[in-house]
Amino acid sequence: MNDVKLGENHPDGTHSLNNLANLYSEQGRNVAAEALYQCALSIMKVEFPGGHPNLDIFQKNYDELKRKQAGQ
What we know:
The protein has 72 residues and is mostly helical. The protein has 4 helices and no strands. The chain has one domain (2-66).
């Protein structure tokens, strides 16, 4: 629904992507989580090339998933 209102690559939609990725990660759906984290990160990097606090949070979440995957 946010995509319709804000547009597919609007930075506000990245919160939803990150939250869904967090849920998928908790459920062990790591492939789906990784794709969503990567999507959120790529949008944020384009929209905020100088950095943004949420970009740091999203990157931390993605890095945590990658550590979890490496430990499996």
